[in-house]
Design goal:
With 415 residues, the chain is α+β, with helices and mostly antiparallel strands. The protein has 14 helices and twelve strands. The protein folds into two domains: 218 residues, no CATH class; 147 residues, Trna Endonuclease, Chain: A, domain 1, CATH 3.40.1350.10. The strands form two sheets. It has a six-stranded antiparallel β-sheet with strand order 1-2-3-4-6-5. Helix 2 packs antiparallel against helix 8.
């Protein structure tokens, strides 16, 4: 099981906290993996359980007798089991099962982990629902890494889940079709949220062993290979230098009463994030450069090609109150992750970190050492110069000074 924490949103503190939560649960699962390893797996870069060993043999080919929507449904169900159930191959029938029942829109594939049904996929492809832990998604919302407006455009509904297990700590996500569910599940906060909930309930009781049908689990397990073998990013980027038009930050119409953060500060952060994004979009538009969001399925805040065809990606971080250092640290980690993921796809991109304010000149050197352009939102006059210098062949590691970090009027600076 994975031991490392994926870069970006999560930290070693998150793993430690989850380890403590899981450790209080007495479970047969600890015979297979200790709580610390399970907690690390929740936040690690998502990898599926391998094809072998398959939980059960399949009589014939897994797709026999299934039409196209059914094949897609079985593939999704198997993919979710292999991606989000801990130690899935060795715990099938002991900590989880996949069942096929009839309700609502017709035949439904339903994943049950511990005492909780955590996934439902209709074979017609008309609807997919998913139960997840709330904490990773709330954290991602705070960091600006979840675009609820985009979720709304795709028809994704998010509600507080009211089943008794962890009644106040989980969400119910509903998607209109399988493609949308796949897009949603490929977002790192969502996959972490699904893993976190399944890790918790898998360590609890499982009273459904008599309902386990090995052939159902085995069929879905093999079906998932169709997604894993040809899993292309949901977006393609194309020649535009971005996947989709920037549509602004999303603010929930009704903030949940269970949110533990300051709602006013949250709303201020969302507004500031949108202001920074639009400031850069307008600045580059004046130079004839079109800016969008996302690139080849990597959820960058902004992406564009300059007039010379060079690819840029930007992470935008609003600074509200006393969170400047935390936002700089988080933003740098995210943009480095995005550069790495794009490089793995053969895309060379110049990373840019945009923050509301930067009062510590050390951050210019920190970003320069990592070949990241740092821009401050208080003054756009030098943005063009910073972006131009940042893409020169001689601009890279070892950059010092405050190039790219503009100190606005009245902002303290070290001497």
């Amino acid at each position: 099981m994975a031991q490392s924490v994926s870069t970006g949103l999560w930290s070693a503190d998150d793993v430690e906290e989850l380890t403590e939560i899981l450790a209080v649960r007495r479970s047969r699962l600890w015979q297979l993996t200790p709580p610390a390893d399970l907690a690390a797996w929740v936040f690690a870069d998502p990898e599926p359980a391998p094809l072998d060993p398959v939980p059960a043999a399949v009589d014939g080919h897994w797709a026999d007798g299934l039409d196209e929507p059914q094949r897609a449904a079985w593939a999704l169900a198997g993919w979710v089991a292999r991606m989000t159930v801990p130690e899935a191959a060795s715990t099938a029938g002991r900590h989880w099962l996949l069942s096929r029942v009839t309700e609502g829109h017709g035949p439904l594939l339903r994943l049950t982990v511990g005492v909780l049904e955590t996934l439902g996929v209709y074979e017609s492809g008309e609807e997919v629902w998913l139960r997840v832990a709330g904490a990773p998604i709330v954290l991602a919302m705070d960091a600006g890494a979840v675009d609820l407006e985009e979720w709304g455009r795709r028809g994704i509904d998010m509600q507080e889940d009211r089943t008794k297990t962890l009644a106040e700590e989980k969400l119910l996500l509903t998607c209109p079709d399988i493609d949308t569910a796949l897009w949603l599940l490929r977002q790192p906060p969502v996959i972490a949220a699904a893993r976190m909930l399944n890790a918790w309930v898998a360590a609890g009781p499982f009273s459904f062993g008599s309902r386990y049908r090995p052939e159902v689990a085995g069929r879905a397990w093999r079906a998932a290979e169709t997604l894993l073998a040809g899993a292309a990013p949901a977006e393609t980027g194309g020649e535009r230098g971005f996947d989709r038009e920037y549509a602004g930050s999303a603010v929930p119409a009704d903030l949940s009463v269970q949110r533990s953060f300051d709602a006013d500060a949250y709303l201020a952060g969302v507004s500031e994030h949108d202001r920074l994004c639009r400031a850069l979009i307008d600045h580059l538009a004046a130079e004839g450069v079109r800016v969008g969001a996302g690139l080849h399925g990597v959820p960058v805040d902004l992406a564009w090609r300059d007039t010379d065809g060079r690819q840029f990606v930007a992470e935008v971080k609003s600074v509200v109150g006393d969170n400047e250092v935390a936002q700089l640290r988080l933003g740098l980690g995210q943009v480095l992750e995005y550069r790495h993921r794009l490089a793995a796809r053969g895309i060379v991109a110049t990373p840019v970190l945009i923050v509301s304010t930067c009062t510590d000149q050390a951050w210019s050197a920190i970003c320069g050492d990592n070949r990241v352009i740092l821009l401050q939102g208080q003054g756009t006059s030098d943005w063009t110069a910073a972006l131009t210098k940042g893409r020169r062949p001689d601009a890279g590691a070892g950059t010092t000074g405050n190039d790219g970090c503009q100190f606005g009027e009245g902002t303290p600076r070290d001497h």
